[in-house]
Amino acid sequence: MGDVVIRKSYGGDVYFKIVQIVKKQDGQNLYILKGTNLRIMADAPQNDLEKPGLNKISDNNDVFNKRINSLMKKILMQRKNNTSSRGGLMQKTKDGLAFGRAGRVLHIDGDEEYMNICVRGYKQLGIECVGKMVPEMQQPQVILNLLKEYRPDILVLTGHDGMIKGSQNYLSLDSYRNSKYFVEAVKKAREYQSSYDELVIFAGACQSNFEALIEAGANFASSPQRVLIHALDPVFICEKVAFSNISKFVSPDEALENTVTGVKGLGGLQTRGKFREGMPKSAYS
Question: What Pfam families does its record include (predicted)?
Answer without folding.
Answer: Peptidase_U57 (PF05582)
